Amino acid sequence: MYNLTRLRILDLSRNHLSGPIPFDFPSLLNLEQLNISFNMFGGPIPSTISNLTRLTILDIFTNYLSGDIPSDMFERLSKLQVLDLVSAWIPTSIPMSLFKCKELQIMNLVDCGFEGILPKEIGNLTMLRSLDLTYNEIEAFANNIIICKMQQSPTEKCPSTKYKSPKSHIDNIITSYHQTRKTPLCYSAL
After folding, report:
1. Domain count, the chain
2. Cβ(128)–Cβ(150) below 8 Å
3. Of 69, 2, 66, whose CA–CA distance to 40 is shortest?
4. Considering the entire predicted model, what is its pTM?
5. Mean pLDDT over each residue of the chain, to the nearest integer
6. Taking 50 as the threshold, does the pLDDT of residue 22 lie above it?
7. What is the CATH number of the domain that holds 135?
8. Torsion 57-15-30-76 (CA) sign
């Protein structure tokens, strides 16, 4: 992937691609949307994704990833609005650097193997409108009830788990928590 400095959207979804995620991302520095969902990529998520500082959408939905998410992966992704890691199965705790993504509106982390307590730092995500942590081993709240300023009640369901575009995706994400193995993870501040 060289000489692609003007590329803004890279959608390689549903291509039956396999092996490790092959990108070093040296020339994709203007990339705003990366979708590699519904492939058969395996291995760890490359730490070089953190070099994509203009990224607003990161969709790694349904791949065969393993290993930990690099702890600093989200440090430089300050423009990230949508994160979709459904079924990534990377058993670890949610990286604290994720809570620095102040623009994050949708966080879809269903069935990722996350475990532990949901940190109170989730309250830093003031733009968050949709959060789905079902089918993880996340325990109840850390000390205090965490208030997320989401538009929908945590028990509502939306029609689809996929977003359509950066402007219309909010209505198409599941915000249900009733399937979570532990207690509900967020209350909506209405």
Report:
1. 1
2. yes
3. 66
4. 0.75
5. 75
6. yes
7. 3.80.10.10
8. positive
How many angstroms separate the CA atoms of 30 and 7, rounded?
A: 6
What range does the domain containing 111 cover? 1-190
Residue for token pair 């790694």: 60
Provide the H-helix boundaries in 47-142: none
Please provide the size of the chain in residues. Answer: 190
Determine the 3-state secondary structure of 185 from DSSP.
coil
CA distance 65 to 173: 22
- For 4-18, 97-111, 124-138, 176-190, which range has the lowest pLDDT when averaged over its residues? 176-190
Mean pLDDT of 103-111: 93
- Tell me how far CA of residue 132 lies from CA of 1, 26, 35, 109, 178, in angstroms: 33, 32, 19, 6, 10
- DSSP state at residue 25: -
Tokens representing residue 11 in the block: 């959608």
* Calpha distance 50→39 (Å, rounded): 21
CA torsion angle for 134, 13, 65, 154 (degrees, to 10)? Answer: -10
- C-alpha to C-alpha distances, 59 to 6, 9, 144, 147, 156, nearest whole angstrom: 20, 12, 31, 25, 23
Higher pLDDT, 91 or 75: 75
